Amino acid sequence: MLYLLSELSTEFSALNVFRYLTFRAAGAVVTALMVGFIFGPAIISWLRAKQKQGQPIRTDGPKSHLLTKQGTPTMGGVMLLLGIGIATILWADLSNRYVWIALFVTMSYGFIGFMDDYLKVTKRSVGGLKGKLKMLLEIGVALIAAYWISVSGTPALADKLAMPFFKEALFDLGVFYLPVAVFVMVGAANSVNLTDGLDGLAIVPVMIAAGVFVIISYLIGNLVFANYLQVNYVPGAGELAVFCGAVVGAGLGFLWFNAPPAMVFMGDTGSLAMGGALGSVAVVTKHEVVLAIVGGLFVLETVSVIVQVASFKLTGKRVFRMAPLHHHYEEKGWAESTIVIRFWIIAFILAVAGLATLKLR
Question: With pLDDT > 70 as the criterion, what percentage of the chain qualifies?
């Protein structure tokens, strides 16, 4: 919306600043952050009033959660969605299709998560939406987005998968492109969802990953930088730097209230939306594989669940004391703050490794 002011730069030269992606990305960070600060307390009060007993706590999870997490409201992801939506619409070039694709996936996944959280709260159950229905809805949204991305971009890149460490290497997926793109978005959404188990654990790695994709989006969408780094140039992808900036800002605003001890949980409303946001940006920028590195913490959490389930079904034995991985360390006696901060450090290291793939080719 504010981008349109740049059209008046011929009369008011100062307005030319709205053409710059870096300025608008920074503006999106600040705006989303302020939305969280301004509306956060009211949203939390409203959630508390509607959720007298807070989020239902799993009885098969760590026993300490029955004491420490009881009564904390969920659906705090509404705060994230509000911040991302307002900041993106205010600062992004709204004629850019990729911006709308990223918003579509984020808001749609947020709505799916909201329905899941709503059922959990109203029925006082950890069940929520039926697993198959939830997955079908996620796949449906991702399929629409994947097709939209394929018809919106350069035909030469439409059904290709780029690989890190190789100069402009592309693998022609053909008819398998859509399933792979869907897998990336659905997988990212559910990986973040699995990671969201401790105060502040998921939102900081999400912000770190989004920060990396601010840089990746900007470089991939700039012909000069893309040629210099010998990566695939994706026209229009640079505008996603504004969207990713909004994710970072909204995450910071949410973390203010989610820092231990959390005043609110993001719930599936936030975790599915944040994962979907990262997945959609990765698909647009042709950095799907890099997302697995940058978001390696989410991958580790997901793999821990898969290994645990497979091991128990095949051998009757558990590899971890409890899955996902953060619960394993809780059961080993680690303090919650220790787990959270150490996982943040891992997320930062993996993000730097993922960012390094831009140069190591």
Answer: 94
* Torsion sign across C-alpha atoms 205, 208, 214, 219: negative
Burial class (CB in 10 A: 0-12, 13-18, 19+), 82: buried
What is the reported pTM? 0.94
How many C-beta neighbours within 10 Å does residue 223 have? 11
In a domain, 80, yes or no: yes
Are 29 and 248 within 8 A, CB to CB?
yes
Tens digit of pLDDT for each residue in 306-355? 999 999 999 999 999 998 999 999 999 999 999 999 999 999 999 999 99
Compute the Cα dihedral for 347, 350, 356, 357 and give only its sign: negative
In a domain, 361, yes or no: no
Range of the domain at 137: 2-356
Type and span of the H or E element at 312: helix 296-315
**Rounded to an integer, what distance in angstroms lies between the CA atom of residue 349 and that of residue 107?**
29
Domain-located, residue 50: yes
- Give CA–CA dist 350/346, Å, rounded: 6
Q: How many structural domains is the chain composed of?
A: 1
